[in-house]
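Today's session is about reading a structure prediction critically. Students often jump straight to the picture, but the first step is always the sequence itself: look for stretches that repeat, for charged clusters, for runs of hydrophobic residues. Only then move on to the predicted structure, which in these notes is written as discrete structure tokens rather than atom positions. Here is the chain we will use throughout the hour.
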Amino acid sequence: MTLLVGLAVLVGLAGIVIPVLPGSALIAVAVGVWAFTHPSTGSWVVLAVVLILLTVGWVGTYVLTGRRVSAAGVPRRSLVVAGLVGIVGFFVVPVVGLLLGFVLGLYAMEHLRLRDPTAARESAWVALRATGLGMLVELGLALLASTTWLVAVLTGVGT
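Below is the predicted structure for this chain, in token form.
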């Protein structure tokens, strides 16, 4: 069971970088399953720490990204359309389609909104940097949460 949880944690980490799967949620559920199958005070403490780290990462991502994107004047509509184009791109161009579709969709929406290629490029660039920063924050805290679980497993917490 621990091996399956570890695999789910790895898939969750990948899901943060390649946002097709809800990475943080998958990690939380996996560690929750581990805690329920290895009930002890230690496993519940590990689960609580993991949930706190993942929540801080998730909230931090949206706060940092939202503030920077709002400050740049990029409307949420542009990000939603870019996300949808990214999802289509994921299926059209394997591996890089998600990122390529997101970038192209974001630029296209900003170009339609601003009617100026230079301003659209600058606006899209700010939104992309903010999204990347948010992803790094979430990934960093998810890695810390995953490491917390791994250390617990390796030291025998919950057994």
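Discussion point for the tutorial: The CA atoms of residues 83 and 102 lie 6 Å apart.
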